[in-house]
Amino acid sequence: MKKTLRIIFLLLVTFTLILPAAGLSGETSADRVEPEKIVLKGSHNLAVGKSIRLKAAVKPAGASQEVKWKSSDKTVARVSKNGKVTGIKAGDVTITAVSAENPKVRKTWSITVHAKPVKKIKLSATATTLYLDVHKTVQVVAQVSPQGAYSTLEWKSSDKKTATVSDSGFVTARKAGTVTITASAVDGSGKTGSITLTIEKKEPPFPEPEEGQPVHYYALLVNNCNYVHITRLPSTKHDAKAMKNALAGLNQGWKITGKSDLTGSQIAAAIPKAFEGATASDICLFYYSGHGSEDMDYNPGALMGIRYNGDSATDDLLTAEKLRDQLIRSCPGKVIVILEACGSGAVIYDGDPLSWAQSSGSFSRAAVRAFSDVSGTDPRTGELLSHKFTVLTTCEHGDYGVNLPVVEGCDSGLLTYSIVRTLGCGYPDGRYSGSMAADTNGDGLLTLGELKISANAYLKDIKNKFPDATTQVFQYFGDDQMVLFSR
To answer: What is the pTM of this model?
Structure first.
């Protein structure tokens, strides 16, 4: 019996060893997963002397993951058998991953090698405290050194439930708490920079002017003319020049900052610098002449930076909400906003003038509330109830701004032209003629209420001469008694 069991055991062992060789194990060539494509992940930028690692995934799942790496120019960058790419000299190179199982399956990856690696990243923001009830966005600005290093960074939030950050450093608060925003170099240098933001539920009350304090006037005049991807606007230069000269020739002591051809981010960054030193007793004027957008899905009421390319989701749009955030942080006192742009009416209009279903959704939330403080807007008229902002815009919601040759050989924006002429100044020289037509009571003080009446009269006359301008309206909401101009 023992001998019989021993024979059976030996037969079983032999049979088990023979099965794989006989192809009976189930692992046939027909069951092998063939590679179909390779997916690569990594950075497209690298600094000389630094390394990055490319990760290759062979698809579909189950295929052999073994790949071989090649560099198109080993004098620019070399690649190891594990996908580690090292920069040798400045230039462009293509790295190719080839399936070891099937050489026909391959994937290329372009890399630019930069001469200087990032050595330091410094992050800053105009405000490190955000408030959920009012202004809950801020742009974190990164200063990368040395000059010439690759400055595009990878942004991350330590807690996305508290705050999120975009690819260009715009931070949006989600709930109260603290969050750390980190920007990392992608050139293989491993350098990072970080900043901690605090998010609170409610904003503290606005400071009130101290009695007897003198009023100072600050102005930031932005004109965007030389757009990279869309139509240039030569008239914006005339608008800004006329507005600057008119301001300088009227009230004494204006601190005027002029800026041309800015991106959306640069407009936002220019605001705190232009209004630095302003107190709760002062008046700040923000003026913009350029392209505008009121895309209902993404950016209701937005100023277009010069690199805007037609993509409504681009970061080169400064939305009304972001503009308001910057102004409210930078201007403790009252603020006048003048917008010579298409879509400018989307900033302040409330209601349903067109058939867009979004007019009561994202449009109302982002655009109407953008320039109203915690007191909100009148639900019947849409007028701002804010004591802080007065807004003058070119168009009604849904209309396009029109630049017309109101002066021979010189196109202008209609809103700007009307304001400047109402002030008794020429266009585009802005030279004061000796009297303010809008000063109906002759006290030498021009209130915004007086300005509205007179400027509307100018617009009416222009519309009669130029049928293309029939949609233009002087939209105005705010403090009728505020004195902005005087002699």
So the answer is: 0.56
